[in-house]
């Protein structure tokens, strides 16, 4: 280990024994999720399971009005959904065979090993984000022990893309076209940090905590201290989750402050006048069009920011973040297919619970629209069960 890495380890050694902090026994439900929020989650989870195809992959995208299914696919979004399925199968034993078949397809079709590392290869490319989601899927799986060697190889595959300064490279196997590495890393860097930390929570192997902490130092400078020059909303939720975990492990105030800086900035995007709750501001079109998957992942990040505010006793921010979460979920609920569509020849079960991409022209329901929403509500439910949340009553 280099001198720099040794210094990082000494400065940011965990202050708690390795554990799943979000599942601590004292964190049980005191304030429950509103009934309407539970309904969003239940319908979305049921649709995700019905949306698993013959190869045990999720149908990537469907148009409920026409019955069309997209010929496109995206391995990273499939793997995000695989992780959610793995987590669902922890509590729902009936889903474990489905989770196993889904993971078996991934391992047999996309997983590769070489040079002591494991990685996802899809269409001749291997991206950091997909490898991070594979590791997250392993870490969430009730069958983790059976895949422990593969998980170790995947974790080392992520570290193989780490530079000496702690930053990441976006591709293990690059595409044959030009790409914007800086843009891709606004997604992939935080995903990699979260994956390494979740792997650490599962194994207690301090090497992965050390390397995640080292990378966090680089991105605290890049994305937080230099937020005025480098802000892009995609990195906010992933880095929020990572910094929340690092705060849990180290109690270092810089991680709490980073969470607040990022999410205070994110709230500038939330629509409060036209379609209330969505994350779209026409004054900043460079951040993308309205999209339910973005709404879902931003809401998940805000759930972690809400929990951070509770932990640090910042009731003003906790209230502000909870309000933002609730109006976001109300908007997402308005995008969820629930009743029979008169214009559609499909049976209602084919799309009931799916979430359309936006309220404008895009009627398609993509798998990650539902997956991100489920993850957001699960996180919120965990954090509303904390003692600190007992005086806060969410409304929808």
Oligomer: single chain
**Average predicted local confidence, pLDDT:** 91
Order of helices and strands: HHEHHEEEHHEHHHHHHHEH
Numbering strands along the chain, what is their spatial order in the largest sheet? 1-6
What is the level-2 CATH architecture name?
Alpha/alpha barrel
N-to-C terminal Cα separation, in Å? 51 Å
Largest sheet: 2 strands, antiparallel
Please bin the fraction of helical residues.
40-55%
Helix run count: 14
How much of the polypeptide forms β-strand, as a percent range? under 5%
What structural class should be given to the helix and strand makeup?
mainly alpha
Choose one word for the global shape.
Answer: globular
The CATH topology turns out to be Glycosyltransferase
How many individual β-strands?
6
How does this model look, in words?
By secondary structure, the protein is mostly helical. It has one domain: Alpha/alpha barrel (Glycosyltransferase). It is built from 14 helices and 6 strands. It has helices at residues 3-11, 35-50, 75-91, 96-109, 128-140, 148-159, 181-203, 206-225, 227-230, 235-250, 253-266, 292-311, 315-335, 367-384; strands at 61-62, 111-114, 117-120, 126-127, 171-173, 365-366. The strands form 3 sheets. Strands 1-6 form a two-stranded antiparallel sheet. A hairpin with a 2-residue loop joins β2 and β3 (117-120). α3 (75-91) runs antiparallel to α4 (96-109), α3 (75-91) crosses α14 and α7 runs antiparallel to α8 (206-225). The N and C termini lie far apart (51 Å). Residues 1-26 are annotated as: Disordered. InterPro entries: 6-hairpin_glycosidase_sf.
